[in-house]
Every structure is written in C-alpha cells, then in structure tokens.
Amino acid sequence: MQLAAFPKCFMDELCVHRTMSVFDWIALAEKEIKPLGVTGLEMYTGFLTSFAPDYLAEVKSALNTAGFAMPMFCASPDFTSPDPAHRRAEVEKERKMIAVSAALGGKTCRVLSGQRRPEVGEQEGIAWVVACIEDLLPYAEEKGVILVMENHFKDNYWQYPEFAQKMDRFCAIVERIESPFFGVNFDPSNTLLANEDPLELLRRVAPRVVTMHASDRRPKPGLQIGPEGITDYTQLIHGEVGTGMIDYDAIFSILRSVGFDGWVSIEDGVNGIEELQRSARFLTAKMGL
Predict the structure, then answer these.
(1) Residue 84 burial (CB < 10 Å; 0-12/13-18/19+)?
(2) Which residues are CB-neighbours of 138 under 8 A, at least 6 positions away?
(3) Span between the terminal Cα atoms of the chain, in Å
(4) CB 274, CB 13: distance < 8 Å
(5) Residue by residue, what is the 3-state secondary structure of 100-148?
(6) Could you tell me the residue range of the domain that residue 239 belongs to?
(7) How far, in Å, CA of 148 to CA of 257, rounded?
C-alpha cells in the first residue's frame, strides 16, 4: 500500500477563492507531509485552472520535481439527470477527466452515480448510471485508467446528496459492471452519513476496491441520526484520521485479506496542515510504511 493525500482542508482556497494554486499545494505538501511518508497527491478537477496540454504538463512536472505520484484523479460526474442530453454531456465531461488523469500520470479516475434528485426512481437511476459508466469503459481502457466509483455523500458543490449513498443501491451498481477497468474507491466515513456500517460495506465490495479515501467523521454532540442518515455536512465534525468513529485496524485487516495493495489517500478535515500531518503519522503506522 502507498499513501497519498487530498487537501480537504484547502478546498475553497483551491477551488473557489483561488487564494492557493495547485502549485502552492504541491510545494506545501513537499515540505510538510512528504517527509511523513506521503508519496502521492490526489487531484480534483477544481484544483486545475485549465485542462490544456501545456498546463497539465506543467502540473505533472511540478509533481515529478517534488517527488510525488498523482495516483488518483477525483472527478464528480452526475449521471442521474432525467435529461438524456445532460447525461450525455456528463459522459463527455468524464471522458475528458479520464484523459486529464492519464496526462498527469494517474492510474484511476473517480466516478460517482450522480445527485439524488427527488423525481428520479431507483431502478431508472441505476440503469442510467450503469449505462453511462459502461459507455466510458472502452476509453478508460484505451487510456489505461481504472474508473473507481466512490460510496460518496455529496460533492462539495452539488445541490443534492449522492444517488447511490445507501449501501444496497451502491452495490447494485457495482455488481452490474464487470470490467478490469472499473472498481471501487472506498471511503469508510461516508458510510456513516448513510447511517450504515463501514465494515459491512467493505466486506461486500472488498475484492473490487482499487483505491481508498482515509477519512474520519463524528456527529456533532447530541445529533440524532435518522433512517435517512445525515444530509447536511454542517452536522458533522470531519477531522483528523484516527480520532473519529472508524475502526482502521479492522479496515486494513479486511483489505489485506483480499490482497489490496493500492493507494490510500488521506481525506482530512478542515482545520489545516497540522491535522493532515497527524493523519499521515497515524496511517503510516497502521499501514506499516
């Protein structure tokens, strides 16, 4: 296993306010977390200000110079719109993100199901998602990039939570797609938001796990989680790995039992680089790095 990092604590600085560039993040990571065993930096579409080849080459050069791989590219396609034209546009957008991942040296590119729109039924939504992902697989194979579907809660900038947030719906999609260029990006703490057991989900999908987000969450004190899970990020404390509700000993035991040897990417909270450093120390110890 190898350890990467995702700068959850700097999302708005990188994607909205643009007070931090991707090059700033690479330089900061080289100084602050590379010495702790982090050898990869996961990228997200919003970190990049262009998808032009020259710009992507510049980002890849900065990563290489700093000694980082870019193993995981985090895209957020939305395949559950009732409008077929919108779904086709999302497929084309994801196709471009596969190419971006390959240009940066990535071996995986995230896919999601899409937003949980109230007017979309379960079976039609599942059918749309499967069709969209299967449409992308030949191109993913051509580029040598594995599509990894995350058991997600909600993209930071979406209106609705994830269509396949619940375990049964997520597994129904995963089980319908058989390809060496499709697998799972497992995020244990996202399962908590669905009021479900992370270990139960992992046991169901462990042979399909290609990458993992290492995150940890806890509800705010006194919060009552209903049958639909948590649907509002403001009701959570999303902090350093190893201080929340996730049993990482059990998670790594299950992953090792199926021979998992992929990338684990730290998805830390919102309180800055010091927490990210502590997460890195925790995970390198648990992973035996």
Answers:
(1) exposed
(2) none
(3) 8
(4) no
(5) HHHHCCCCEEEECCCECCCCCCHHHHHHHHHHHHHHHHHHHHHHCCEEE
(6) 2-287
(7) 20
Distance CA 236, CA 230 (A): 8
CA distance 54 to 136: 25
Q: What CATH number does residue 177 fall under?
A: 3.20.20.150
Output the CA torsion sign for 59, 23, 43, 71. positive
Strand partners, 266: 5, 214
**Residue 189 CA neighbour count, 13 Å, CB half:** 24
User: Taking 60 as the threshold, does the pLDDT of residue 233 lie above it?
Assistant: no
Calpha distance 208→182 (Å, rounded): 8
CA distance 111 to 174: 11
Cα–Cα distance between 55 and 283 in angstroms, integer? Answer: 32
The values of phi and psi at residue 40, to 5°, are -135, 150
Report CA 238 to chain centroid distance, whole Å: 15
Contact 113, 79 (CB under 8 A): yes
- What value does the mean pLDDT take over residues 170-175? 98
DSSP secondary structure letter of residue 10: G
Three-state DSSP class for residue 95: helix
Q: What is the pLDDT of residues 17-36, one digit of tens each?
A: 999 999 999 999 999 999 99
How many structural domains are present in the chain? Answer: 1
Dist. CA 138–CA 95, nearest whole Å = 10
